[in-house]
Amino acid sequence: DGGITQSPKYLFRKEGQNVTLSCEQNLNHDAMYWYRQDPGQGLRLIYYSQIVNDFQKGDIAEGYSVSREKKESFPLTVTSAQKNPTAFYLCASRTSGSTDTQYFGPGTRLTVL
Amino acid sequence: GENVEQHPSTLSVQEGDSAVIKCTYSDSASNYFPWYKQELGKRPQLIIDIRSNVGEKKDQRIAVTLNKTAKHFSLHITETQPEDSAVYFCAASISGGYNKLIFGAGTRLAVHP
After folding, report:
1. What is the b/e burial string over B18-48, where b = at least 16 CB atoms within 10 angstroms of the residue's CB?
2. What pLDDT does A1 receive?
């Protein structure tokens, strides 16, 4: 999982602002995922993508948007429509085929001021 | 959709004791069950996984058991050590395709010397 990077590590946002979280992988993985983690809760799926130019909404997609223009990149935009964006955001990737293992990036902690 | 429940939410053991964490899932089509360990502020790391065609899997001090009929699976850690202290998450998914992982809420394990 060292081949998955996220930036920045910490991000502060004012209310009403859109912010974009970066996720890059050099593992040649086809599938990529974004999760949100809140204290005391498990990871919840925001968006996922199987291939370039394809992505699907997860369980909590409202207020978020993504793009998948390149295989190695899957940025997440947290829009002003997301009412409670303060959380730890984790990106993951998985190769296609028979393996199911998802590898996680180091995460971005977003705080709304 | 799939729902995963995890118990207990916190677990405290003495060093050398065993620890058991249990999860139940709702979708009988789920056939892939990973366990992740997450240290404070870090990314989740896969520690063991099991597929529905296997009832038990071991890796040194860690084992996972699966009961498909009852739709529950458990993580067993023997001879616990202080470095086992972390939050453990179970998850369930349907192998292949988008492989959407549904996570339990997590168990905070504390191993006391």
Report:
1. ebbbbbbbeeeebbbbbbbbbeeeebbeebb
2. 52
Token pair listed for B106: 């997590």
Each residue's pLDDT tens digit, B2-60:
899 999 999 999 999 999 999 999 999 999 999 999 999 899 999 999 998 889 999 99
First to last CA, chain B: 41
Q: Given CB atoms, is B69 within the 8 Å cutoff of chain A?
A: no
Distance CA B84, CA A28 (A): 31
Q: For B95, which of A33, A100, A105 is closest by C-beta distance?
A: A100
Does B94 lie at the interface with A, CB-CB under 8 angstroms?
no
Instruction: Say which residue the tokens 């204290």 belong to.
Output: A39
Given a contact cutoff of 8 angstroms between Cβ atoms, the answer to whether A52 and A94 are in contact is no
**DSSP three-state, residue B57:** strand
What six digits make up the tokens of A86?
């303060």
Residue A6: how many other CB atoms lie within 10 Å: 20
DSSP secondary structure string for all residues of chain A: -TTEEEE-SEEEE-TT--EEEEEEE-S--SEEEEEEE-TTS-EEEEEEESSTT--EE-TT-TTEEE--SBTTB--EEE-TT-S---EEEEEEEE-SSS----EE---EEEEE-
For A10-63, what is each residue's pLDDT tens digit? 999 888 899 999 999 999 999 999 999 998 788 999 999 999 999 999 999 999
